[in-house]
Amino acid sequence: MRSFLTTAASVAAVLAGLGVASAADLPRAYPAPVVAVPVAAYNWTGFYAGLNVGGVFGNSEHVLVEPGVGLGQLDPNGVLLGAQLGYNYQINQFVVGVEGDLGWTNAKDSSPIAETRARWLGTARARVGFAFDTVMPYLTGGFAFGNIRTSDNVTFSTSKTMTGWTVGGGLEAALWNNWTAKAEYL
Predict the structure, then answer these.
(1) What is the mean pLDDT of residues 92-97?
(2) Contact predicate 168/137, CB 8 Å
(3) pTM for the full model?
(4) Average pLDDT over residues 28-49
(5) Burial of 76 by CB count in 10 Å (0-12 exposed, 13-18 middle, 19+ buried)?
């Protein structure tokens, strides 16, 4: 009997040394942890090019040198068709960029004695916006230039490039992939 106890004790010692475990020692099976996959936010950084269509509204004052006629005001308006190029850089939710545009217009107004006509307009502007993922409101401002033709419908006519400044704002939205649309007022 003594040899049986010694053998049993030896087997127990060997099994304990091998790390044999009973069912109570097995780890419990837990479900795999749920890992939140971050959704990629829209990134506004990069070069872009596009087409634009809009309206032109303005006013022009004429000093007419005719007996009985002094200052006259015309309100040229029309359609604007053009293109733009730009670059944006996004820092967290802030977007800074530059944009240039150039467009043809048929804006004009006339009276029996005077006419004002704009033939083309362009701008070179900085812009700053705040990105709400795929939507970005922004402010913009910079240099403006355009060709203006004025005449008195009788003897005088001039066409020259005028320069000035422009400020405005807009709202741009990403539609799909790399396509956006915007509404802007300058």
Answers:
(1) 96
(2) no
(3) 0.73
(4) 80
(5) buried
Residues 150 and 108 sit within 8 Å (Cβ to Cβ): no
How many CB atoms are closer than 10 A to CB 133? 14
Distance CA 160, CA 51 (A): 25
Q: Token match 């009973």: residue? A: 22
Supply the pLDDT for residue 78: 95
Containing 11, the helix (H) or strand (E) segment is helix 2-18
**Per-residue pLDDT at 8 exceeds 80:** no
pLDDT value of position 110:
84
Query: What's the CA gap between 68 and 87, in Å, rounded?
Result: 53
Q: What are the CA-CA distances from residue 99 to residues 48, 139, 147, 182, 186 (Å)?
A: 9, 12, 20, 13, 13
Of 84, 85, 96, 100, nearest in space to 142 by CA: 100
The amino acid present at 93, given as its one-letter code, is Q
Per-residue pLDDT at 10 exceeds 70: no
